[in-house]
Amino acid sequence: MNNMHILVDSCCDLSAEVRKAMDASVAPLTITVDNVEYIDNGTVEIVPYLEAMKLSASPARSACPSPSLYMEEMLAAPGDCFVITLSSQLSGSYNAAMLGREMALEAAPEKRIHVFDSESACAGETLLAMDLNDAIQAGKPFDEIVRFINEKIANMRTLFVLDSIDNLAKNGRLNRAVAAIANVLSIRPVLSDDGKGGIKILSKARGTKKALAQLVEAIRKQTDHCAERSKRLTLSYCNCLARAKEVREQIFARCPAIREIIMTPTSALSSMYADDGGIVVAF
């Protein structure tokens, strides 16, 4: 087996069990809500954390892992190291990891370290981490894995439906006026990556149920060209397991290209954007 290690930032929604099976390590981000700091290391209680954000008039702020922390994790990794970060359009995590890489290579020039900008977040990072682990377990060489994952990033799609877009608006990811009107009219946008790591509105619906139906239809259309049961899909959910299970069944029923669906609850950082009731998929 290749001596290669996976390091992700904490926006990657790998479950503790999957992370242990991969022997992957995590560089945690920090979220601040009204001067209270939450370290996204798996110990944050999501429900009271969501309530704190809801009650706050100020936006929650996130801080990426420091270059020094990344360096330490890279040097601690046995052998070579692959790093997956959330989109550089949404966070400084990628840039911090790249600086950490430079520092690590100065200390250990024999190491091979590659940092992937996922151009996504949440379920998108999870999907890439699982594909990366598959490639390592298959014994693919380092450079081939880099090419393989870069192709995955270029072709991956991330879609999401949020019960509330208040946090996205508070943090400047969507227009506040648009968010206010959407809340009044119960409009739920189906959001997507823009192909460059940013966010765009794919469609709009009146109510979450219709928006989720549009989400499933978008998955069907975007996978129509794929062979039957050929694709893995990851689904992150924020405090809404029952809803996530319903969406999973709808995807299996309507999207013949989907082979498996990996469901996982959102981390603290992912929950900051997904908010209560949010569903995020990547494929």
The largest sheet, given as strand count, sense and whether it forms a barrel, is: 6 strands, mixed
Average pLDDT works out at: 94
* CATH fold title of the largest domain: Hypothetical Protein Tm841, Chain: A,domain 3
Radius of gyration: 18 Å
Q: Which CATH C-level class of the largest domain is it?
A: Alpha Beta
Q: Which term fits the overall shape?
A: globular
> Segments where pLDDT lies below 50 for 5+ residues?
none
Question: What's the oligomerization state?
Answer: single chain
Structural class: alpha/beta
N- and C-termini, Cα separation: 27 Å
Helix count from the secondary structure assignment: 11
> Which series of helices and strands comes N to C?
EHEEEHEHEHEHHEHHEEHEHEHE
Strand content: 15-25%
Features:
single chain; 283 residues; alpha/beta; Rossmann fold; Hypothetical Protein Tm841, Chain: A,domain 3; 2 domains; 6-stranded mixed sheet; 4-stranded parallel sheet; 24% strand
Short description:
This protein is α/β, with parallel strands linked by helices. It has helices at 16-22, 46-55, 67-76, 93-107, 123-137, 142-155, 166-170, 176-184, 208-222, 241-254, 268-274; strands at residues 4-9, 25-27, 30-33, 36-39, 61-63, 80-85, 113-117, 158-161, 187-193, 199-206, 231-237, 258-265, 279-282. It has two domains: 4-29 and 64-155, Rossmann fold (3-Layer(aba) Sandwich), CATH 3.40.50.10440; 158-282, Hypothetical Protein Tm841, Chain: A,domain 3, CATH 3.30.1180.
